[in-house]
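chain below, 290 aa
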Amino acid sequence: MKKIIYCLLVSSVFLLLTACSASDEESKMEVANDSANYSVEEEKSTVDVEGETSAEAPSEVNTERMIIHKAIIRTNVKELAKAQSNIEQKVKKYGGYIVESNVYQEDDQRSSGNIIVRIPEKHFETFLSDAEEEASKVLERNVTGQDVTEQYVDLASRIKSKRVVEERLLAFMSTAEKTEDLLKISSDLAKVQEEIEVTVGKMKYLENQTSFATIELTMYENRVIVPGLDSEDLNTWEKTKKQFVTSMNGLLAAGSAIIVFVIGNMPVLIILGVISSTVYWIIKRRKRNK
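prediction:
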């Protein structure tokens, strides 16, 4: 009887040790499975985080309305260079910066300038008023605003959920023992951290766009050019002398042509003269006889 009881005790101890060993193996496998299936856990944690922190978001995320303002203004100005210089001074005064600046000379009477600037949001309306004061006439004024508050809050919520996944993967990495588990967790961790960086970049872009307004200003200048009296280009005396010499040359050329004609055709002229004189004498004699 004692032997039977002893055998039962030994068997119980053996089964207990086997169960503990299996429990350790299952815990290790759970670490590997959790790291391999982190995407499922991420979705769950996203739901949990959004459900738990939705009430805390207004206190942690800036709930002030985030508006991206843009304006397009076309004006006529009296002096393009002066107006553009004044605009550039205003940009520096309000702490903005110039993105692009161009001047186009269409002809002697028409020129235009295009300038794109970014102005701090708090000086947006003031700068628009100053820009319109430089104009002799406002041709177009188009102001738009895009509300990105919801988009910004959504990005902030995504970062929170991804931070939770990042911390979980770091915890898994510290307890993982197998090389293949470490490699899998490292790959998943790198992917999550890359997504966090991309999301942070989008948030910074929205912050920049909402903190500075964009204004595109086009200015046209129409000038009427009145020509002045340019006495230096008249050259009256030089032109008179030139005309006199031209006339004398014409007379000399005509006289020369006459002399050449008479002397050169002298034999012919003598014969024609003799014939003409003979005919004239015969005609005159006949009239006398009648």
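Residues 16-60 have pLDDT under 50 and may be disordered. The longest helix spans residues 2-36.
thats it, cya
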